[in-house]
Each structure stands twice: as structure tokens, then as C-alpha cells.
């Protein structure tokens, strides 16, 4: 009996110490991790909106109204993560940077940072993070992202045989799922832009 109690106390002590150590590590690392994530988003904003002088994170009102207009129901695999106003040197808003996530990818989550000018022209796109097959995330950034820059279309589609129409982009070779997820994510972002920013859905 004494042995059982002793073993239980030892196990409890080990568990308590492990819990305290884990809490300590989390406390020490959470700020650096948050700073690194913020820097990654800041760098992504600059990539998709090089001519912007500053970026201002928008408030919660930019995330409201989506249910009212049916965006959430139409895009259940997409989520708006962050929205920033891209501003010129005088503080005027020249467009927005939208961080959007999709779970349609082959390896699940793909996070895109999309810059859209006030006239709805896509200024640039960058893959913020991807869990696709090794190489596909980079491939999406190299093959898909540049095709959208400077283009303005109601929505986009991809082609496996070579893009010819104004709203077509070339698919990544042998990566239809990733391409489809990427294009759907861009279209969902454009619809969000129309609802919340252009139509004032907030």
C-alpha cells in the first residue's frame, strides 16, 4: 500500500513539474513566435503591394456581414484571417491586402496573401503558408501567383491546355487539386472584396 502511494506521489510530482516546464517554455516562446508571425504577414503585405507606404489592420467590422450575404455558406472551406488597408505616402487607401485560407488543397491548408487595388485589379498574390506536397507550395508561388498580377476579372478559371481567355490561368502541371484550391481561394477573396469593401457589406 505504501509503495502504491509513494509511486502515485512520484508520478504526480513528475506530472506537475512537466506541466510547469511546459508552461514556462510556452511563456518564453509565445512572444517571439507572435513577432515572427507578424513579420511574415508584414513581409507578405509588402510583396503583394510594393507601392504601398504603410498597412493598417482593419477592425472587426470588416469580418461582419459575410453571413448576411451568404459568403460563408458559399465558401465553407475558406476563411478570412486578416485584412489590411494598403496606404500611399499621404495616407490614402489604394487597396487592400486580404489574408485568406482554404482547406481544399491536397495537403489541406493553404494561406494566401492577396493584394487588391480599389478598382478590383489583383495587385499581387503570395503563398503565406502551405501544407501541400513538398515543392507544390513553392510551385504555386512561382507558377500561379504571377499569372494573376495586374489582372481584373469577375472570376478566374484554370486551363490544363494553355490559358487563352482573359480570366484563365495555366494550371500547375500534375497538380490539379492544388491549382483548383488556389483559384477557388482567389475567387472567394474577390467575392469577399465585393461584399465587404466595394458594396459596404460591413
Characterization of the model:
With 202 residues, the chain is of the alpha+beta class. It has one domain (54-198). Helix content is 43%, strand content 26%. It is built from 4 helices and 7 strands. The chain has helices spanning 2-48, 71-74, 136-148, 176-198, and strands at 54-57, 78-87, 93-105, 108-117, 122-130, 157-159, 168-170. The chain has a 5-stranded antiparallel β-sheet, with helices on both faces. The protein has a two-stranded parallel sheet with strand order 6-7. Strand 2 and strand 3 (93-105) form a beta hairpin. The longest helix has 47 residues, at 2-48. It is elongated and about 80 Å long. It starts with a helix and ends with a helix.
Helix-and-strand structural type: alpha+beta
Mean pLDDT across residues: 80
Which residue ranges are poorly predicted, with pLDDT under 50 across at least 5 consecutive positions? Answer: none
Silhouette: elongated
Order of SSEs, N→C? HEHEEEEHEEH
Q: Percent helix among the residues?
A: 40-55%
Radius of gyration: 22 Å
Domains, number: 1
Q: What is the strand arrangement across the widest sheet?
A: 1-2-3-4-5
Query: How far is the first residue's CA from the last residue's CA?
Result: 66 Å
* Percent in strands: 25-35%
Major β-sheet, in short? 5 strands, antiparallel
Number of helices: 4
The tally of strands reads 7
